[in-house]
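Two entries, shown back to back:
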Amino acid sequence: MRILHVTEKLIGGGAETYLKMLCFNQVKLGHEVAIIFFKEPISAQDTINEMQEKGCKIIKWRFSSLPDILKEAMKAQIIHGNLIYAEFLGFILSVAFNKKLIVTRHSLDFFLHKTHWRIVNFLILKKTTAIICVSEAVKKFILSFRAASEKKCHVIYPAVDKDYMYSKLSGLNVRKLFNMENLKYALVPASLEEPKGIIYLLRAILALKNEARDWVFLFAGEGSLRKEFENFVIKNDIADKTKFIGFTRNIYDYIAQADMVVLPSLREGFGLVIHESLNFAKPIISTKTSGISESLGNSGILVEPRNSFELKEAITTMMNEEKRKYFCELSLKRAQNFSVGNMVDKTMDVYETALAQKAFKTCGC
């Protein structure tokens, strides 16, 4: 099968990791895979090289690459959009060449506070042959727009190959790198944006200042609120308890050596980093948002979103070594619920079903 994936970028978060796993395995199954992407930070070159080595054709969106993009769209049997900006290009290409359009929806808040994106969203949901939702929560959210039937929506949980994750461990000594050899650390693998709930965790850390004497919270991510959070840390004298390390190209080194993982999100479609942390047998604290509840289940401690007191209590519990061991065992068991093979097989089933359908009109359901 000839598959054209369209995505915003190749590195960054769960959506990008999902795409990488999907493409690697589609090539392994003998399919012809091309990927169009928009954004190319310097740190993405290793990923581009890796994907090309695996057999994926990579095309950066620019006017000079338009002939290549049109060529790939013409010969593709399936166009698969990943994140809404990319979905829009996929939408245009699918209309222009009358191709089957599949989209994967990862989140619960994709720029729909802006009128023009609400219109784009409506058109995409109408046009697409099938919508892959990374959780039941995302499916429910999609159906709330009344632009797509339930029959179009397919819940397929994302996953990352465990062997792949372990193969990426570089031997980096995280504690030595940040001068905390004698300390335990909680990893916070999240962008520094409002939906990730970082401010509520910082308030919990403030309340724990005297109890967490031998703990540091490592914030692995970038975002528009970084300066605000750093000012909060300085103002409240908890700089010794927190480190903002920015975006890291290899999060697996940091997960593997962490003593616990904390994700205080206000909303998540699924939270792929939860799945990654489960595979490293990490004790996890997160929130009772719909997507997280599906990915973590009862294998970690879930607190109410925006509740610093509950976060504090959960962290206090997880500081106990016996409790951490208990949740490590639960994590390993929970990790078995999600597999890359299952994700890929179900996705290919969606493609096959789409190809079996008759040609559709531009805005048909």
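entry 2 starts here
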Amino acid sequence: MTDLPPLDQPNAYVVLGPDDQRGPYTLELLISEVVAGRLQDATPVWWPGIGDWTTFSANPAVAAEIQRRRSGAQAPTNAFAPQPQPGQPQAGQAPQAGADLQAATAGADVSSSGADAAAAPYDQASDLAPIEVEPTAADFEAVGRPVEGFRAGSAMGLDPMHGQNFADLIRRSRARAEAAAMVEQIDERFTESLLSATNTLGLSMTSHSDEGGMHDMQFEDSGGGSLSVSLTQITGHLVADPHGHVTLDITWSTSGYEGASSTDTGEHGEIVVTAGGPDAISTASVSLLLALEDYVSADHIVDTKALERDFAAVAAQLAHSLEGWDQADTD
């Protein structure tokens, strides 16, 4: 009998029907139930040490032990199920799929001591318990990419290792989901800070669209001036990049400017003024790069006060360049 696995260790599992996997039990108990006719020889079974699910008749050592017992002593008493009650399986029948596990194992010694030492088949209840995850740079990089779906096989053909692999997949999926939520929250904080800054300057938003990876917003003040803002949308790639930055393009437009156009080339940080004359629209615009590390901490907390400060400074400077708007008029 040296080829037999340990019969007294509760680490064997059986499948009694669709989505009806049970265990752990001792092989001693399960073999006794097969001999008694309450489990079929073709019942799927698994225990640590075999690569995939088998059946009692397909494993030579177990099949030989069952045959030895059938040709010897009288079959043991029922240890796998209680005395039948109305509506329950009768003696000689395997418990049907979906039957209550406690009723099916009444009187059986199914202590789980030592069962955790080896990989067990997939246990949905434990694998789906809350898991603490910490998104990595790779998770942020993957935000927005399509994720390949997981397709489980039937219980009969399920390798026990798939349970652990599925649990790992859940952890990775949750990490990606948490990273995506962080990215979305950071992006929201940037736009909220821009709205707060323009509000303090007496500007009201008239339109907002998100296309081509940009937030495009329009604002107006009570004096007829308008502000156009184009801000890069935050992505997982930007958050993962230690040198990630967003582009901020702002243009202030107003009438009544009597000055001349600027001679600046529009290089980084230069305000370009285009004069339209006293009765036409003149504009002042600037393009800047905002480093995420200046506003987003290592634990992904956004410094909204710093964003509001810088957004307000840019808008006010552009308006002042045209001398067509005075913040004091809004106080």
